[in-house]
Amino acid sequence: MIHSPKGIVIAAPRSGSGKTLVSLGLLAALRRQGLVVAPAKTGPDYIDPAFLGLAAGRPAVNLDPWAMRPDQLRALAAQQATGAELLLVEGVMGLFDAAADGVGSTADLAETLGLPVLLVVDAERQGQSVAPLVAGFSQWRPGVRVAGIILNRLASARHERMLVAALKATGLPLLGAIPRRPELVLPERRLGLVLPGEVAGFAAFLDHAAEAMGDFVDLDALPALSAPLPPGGKPPSPLPPLGQRIAIARDAAFAFLYPHLLEGWRAQGAELSFFSPLADAAPAPDADAVFLPGGYPELHGPALAAAGNFHAGLAAARDRGALLYGECGGFMALGEALIDAEGNSHAMAGLLPMVSRMDRPKRVLGYRRLLHDSPLPWPAGLNGHEFHYSSARQSGLPPLFEALDAEGIRQMPMGAVLGRVMGSYAHVIAGA
């Protein structure tokens, strides 16, 4: 019987240092050794958790120190680690990088959970100055303990000897030094890493990553550096379910779902069913709520435009009084048309008088405090985030949300409501 799971956080001085590579490789390597490792991701990320879940053989969960209260973070971490020997949490951006209000960093999460940090340092073009870099990160915040170092992308054996010698002055354990190899790189897209199903040879990549961790990292030292998780306690009330019977779109076009929301709805007695718009499936005919999550509808415009059963099923749900709610890509799918980056127009469900366009030269990104007075059965105040390159133009409909950014600066009203059909670009995470 497994008792008292431990945890560790994989972080880095900056984005692009190799956190995802190391996290995936460690999960796969430890799994091969027979350890049960539970994966988690810091912050509002959908794509990394999909990779982490595949590597661990069990779903990952998001732990968001900006949008979630400390008691929710501790409860989710304890729940995720149930039945596991180790909770491995991949960080976000640099260790101390946070939202514009200074809240929500990987360091915040590590301190809240009392977990040590394994710092992944990109060794490319790095010399002896790696020592003060690491020393600075390890001493910057008293409540955050850097327990060990992994060097990534070493150029040669000589390069490794130089950095290892320099790091001795820090007194921190060096768990491994990974050479630069082309097979240890995942492709990227404008919204981050591509989904696992879109990576040709992902299984081969995972094998390479696991082998690299086994060859170049002291795996036996990892559990010893980890720390016990704090007691979970009683979690705060989750967001109420959208209905008693919720039909949820789930496929490559609508893949951005937070597991903690779905589990919270199930725990409150809601019945969840799933359907694929790309397979021209309709929501369950007895559903009293339909949820269209975010994803990449712009990459599947022709298939969605031709999905007559999907469109008819949404219209039938509206006509029987079901609540229809779309987030980001799901919001776009509720409109009349989607114009892709090449200027091609694709017919959508037509339930909101709106046309969305892939026309943003720069991404819209950030946390949002959301206020609403709508048919959504959620608290009036919500926490969420925005991340998109498209715009949606509609007129004459009330917005779904009033919004503030992380600094409390008022944003343009978001989304649209037409009866019990509604949506916006916001991805809702938790109650405020």
From TrEMBL:
| CobB/CobQ-like glutamine amidotransferase domain location | 245-430
Asked whether the UniProt record includes Transport among its keywords, one would answer: no
**Site note Increases nucleophilicity of active site Cys, residues:** H427
| CDD domains, per database record | CobB_N (cd05388)
The pathway is: Cofactor biosynthesis; adenosylcobalamin biosynthesis; cob(II)yrinate a,c-diamide from precorrin-2 (aerobic route): step 9/10
Where, by residue number, is the active site? C328 (nucleophile)
Q: Kindly report, in one word, the top-level EC class recorded for this enzyme.
A: ligase
The catalytic activity of this protein is classed by the Enzyme Commission as: 6.3.5.9
Query: Which PROSITE patterns does the UniProt record give?
Result: GATASE_COBBQ
On whether Membrane is a keyword of this UniProt record, the answer is no
Keywords, in A-Z order: ATP-binding, Cobalamin biosynthesis, Glutamine amidotransferase, Ligase, Magnesium, Nucleotide-binding
InterPro entries for this protein: CbiA/CobB_synth, Class_I_gatase-like, CobQ/CobB/MinD/ParA_Nub-bd_dom, GATase_3, P-loop_NTPase
Q: Name the reaction it catalyses.
A: hydrogenobyrinate + 2 L-glutamine + 2 ATP + 2 H2O = hydrogenobyrinate a,c-diamide + 2 L-glutamate + 2 ADP + 2 phosphate + 2 H(+)
**CobQ/CobB/MinD/ParA nucleotide binding domain ranges (all copies):** 8-185
Cofactor section = Mg(2+)
Q: What is known of its domains?
A: Comprises of two domains. The C-terminal domain contains the binding site for glutamine and catalyzes the hydrolysis of this substrate to glutamate and ammonia. The N-terminal domain is anticipated to bind ATP and hydrogenobyrinate and catalyzes the ultimate synthesis of the diamide product. The ammonia produced via the glutaminase domain is probably translocated to the adjacent domain via a molecular tunnel, where it reacts with an activated intermediate.
Q: Which family does it belong to?
A: Belongs to the CobB/CbiA family.
**HAMAP family reported in the protein's UniProt record:** CobB_CbiA (MF_00027)
Query: Remarks, anything else?
Result: The a and c carboxylates of hydrogenobyrinate are activated for nucleophilic attack via formation of a phosphorylated intermediate by ATP. CobB catalyzes first the amidation of the c-carboxylate, and then that of the a-carboxylate.
Function according to Swiss-Prot or TrEMBL: Catalyzes the ATP-dependent amidation of the two carboxylate groups at positions a and c of hydrogenobyrinate, using either L-glutamine or ammonia as the nitrogen source.
What name is this protein filed under?
Hydrogenobyrinate a,c-diamide synthase
